[in-house]
Structures are given as C-alpha cells and as structure tokens.
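Figure 3 (text version): structure tokens given as input.
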C-alpha cells in the first residue's frame, strides 16, 4: 500500500467481521413496517424509522445493507434519507453495502459507479450489489472504480429467491453454470489480494447445496437469513470451508422488533453469537 492508496474494501470488511461479527442488518423500510411501528408511510415516517434502526444496529454490526428501492419510493426526500443512513452508519463504524443491484451497458455502468463508489458522490457507499446479466464484462467500470477508491462490488451469483435457478443454473457453452462463471470471474478479480479481495458474490442462505465452488477469496453475502428461512446451520451447510467469509444478512426479522431499539440491538448480538457458534 502506498501513502495515497485507500485501504481496500476486502481488508476493511474482513477486519469489521473479525471485530463485530458476521451478521449484516438490512435497513429496508417497507411501508408495512412503517405502519406497524405507528409511523406514516411517507418521507417523515421513513426518516424516523431509518434513523432509529441506524442508532440501534450500526454501532454493533460489521455491515449494514440499506435496500435502495425502499428509499427511492419516497422520491428525492427518500434519497436524502438514504444519504443520511449511509453517512451515519459509517460514522457509527459500520461498513455500508448499498443494495442497488445495478447492471447496464458499460458507459451507463460507469455512471452507476460514479454515483455509488466515488467518495465525491453524496450516495457513495463502501460497496454495492451488481447484476452480471448483461455480461460480466459490463461491470468493468464498477470494478475499476471500486479498485481506485477502495470500494467493493457484490455480484449476484446464486440468489435467495426461488426464481433464480432458471437463469443461474443454466449452462454456458463450456458446460459451466452461469453462477459458476460469475464465481470464476470473481475468483480472478480477487486473485493475489491480501488479506481478502474486494469483489464479493451474493449467494442466498436459502439455496440447495451448491454444485459450484464458492471459494472466491472475497466476501460472500448471504441474504435470505431469518425471514426467508435461512439460519446458522444453512450457512455452515452451503458455504463449508468458505463460511468464515460470509456475511449473513437479515432485514425484516430484525426490523419487526422495532421501534424498540434495545430489542434490535439484542437481535444483532444474538445473531452474531449464533453464527460464531455454528461456524466455529
Ligand atoms: O438473493 C438476494 C439478494 C438480495 N436480497 C435482498 O436482501 C433483503 C432480504 O430481506 P429480508 O427481509 O431479510 O427477507 C432484501 O433487501 C432483498 O432485496 C435477497 O433477499 N436475496
């Protein structure tokens, strides 16, 4: 590392997981949750909800994962709340993985990279999620921008939803699955990184035993933990020897405990303990 190069996302997330555990809280302000909390489903309710969650969880977990769609549905005021969520979560010591699942032709990919991965942008996060289904190479601008600024990119590989396999298990000309190809490309991007690469894969905590090699020398985001049915035993089963690089991510199962801040904080501590025990 030179004096001017930023610490890589891979190094930061590895240190954060060692320090604060492998549980990631999704900050997803569903309209129904806002109403359950006694809030209005508008930008004011969104702000109260999101900032209460940040205060309860961001000082205690390694990574938070706001889902952009739930902020965008409130227009520009919602996006302003997302900017606050990112800034205040980072100030509380959490890495922020912005779940936006972007993917487009290369020139537009660069604009997404500028929006989310360049620290000069008000929406800059530590890492984003990206979709490889316009071709893995279409993500090159995000990869290059992430490298330049010490950010990360998590690419969809084996998603937690039941519709995923029809695309992700399809085979390419050389007989590999689409998911296998994505994982292989990520392995290439992470080769030689020390201690861990910055290019992660999204692999759901709900999937059947994978045929693919999940050892990509990068972080592995496992959504579908909690509400969608995944638990600590699934993380051990699915990821095997790579489980130490997994971030198990849960949104609604934690958010339902609000607006009681202490209950949400306790849920983070409990989930971290359960994961540590299952993966020991
Ligand atoms: O394969 C994927 C990729 C992303 N997600 C996102 O994670 C959360 C899950 O929320 P829960 O309330 O814990 O079910 C949500 O933001 C999804 O968009 C996913 O579920 N599966």
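Below: residues designed for each position.
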């Amino acid at each position: 590392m030179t004096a001017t190069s930023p610490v890589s996302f891979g190094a930061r997330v590895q240190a954060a997981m060692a320090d604060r555990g492998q549980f990631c809280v999704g900050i997803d302000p569903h309209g129904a949750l806002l109403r359950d909390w006694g809030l209005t489903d508008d930008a004011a309710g969104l702000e109260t909800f999101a900032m209460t969650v940040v205060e309860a969880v961001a000082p205690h977990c390694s990574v938070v994962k706001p889902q952009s769609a739930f902020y965008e549905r409130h227009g520009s005021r919602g996006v302003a709340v997302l900017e606050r969520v990112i800034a205040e979560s980072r100030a509380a010591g959490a890495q922020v993985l912005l779940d936006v699942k972007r993917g487009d032709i290369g020139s537009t990919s660069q604009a997404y990279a500028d929006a989310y991965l360049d620290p000069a942008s008000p929406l800059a996060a530590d890492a984003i999620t990206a979709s490889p289904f316009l071709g893995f190479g279409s993500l090159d601008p995000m990869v290059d921008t992430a490298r330049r600024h010490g950010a990360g990119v998590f690419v969809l590989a084996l998603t937690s939803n039941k519709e995923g396999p029809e695309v992700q298990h399809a085979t390419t000309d050389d007989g590999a699955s689409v998911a296998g190809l994505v994982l292989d490309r990520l392995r290439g991007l992470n080769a030689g990184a020390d201690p861990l690469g910055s290019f992660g894969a999204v692999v759901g905590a709900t999937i059947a035993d994978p045929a693919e090699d999940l050892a990509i020398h990068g972080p592995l985001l496992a959504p579908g933990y909690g509400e969608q049915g995944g638990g600590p035993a699934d993380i051990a089963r699915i990821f095997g020897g790579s489980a130490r690089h997994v971030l198990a991510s849960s949104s609604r199962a934690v958010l339902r405990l609000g607006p009681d801040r202490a209950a949400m904080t306790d849920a983070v501590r409990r989930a971290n303990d359960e994961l540590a025990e299952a993966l020991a």
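The CA atoms of residues 202 and 221 lie 5 Å apart.
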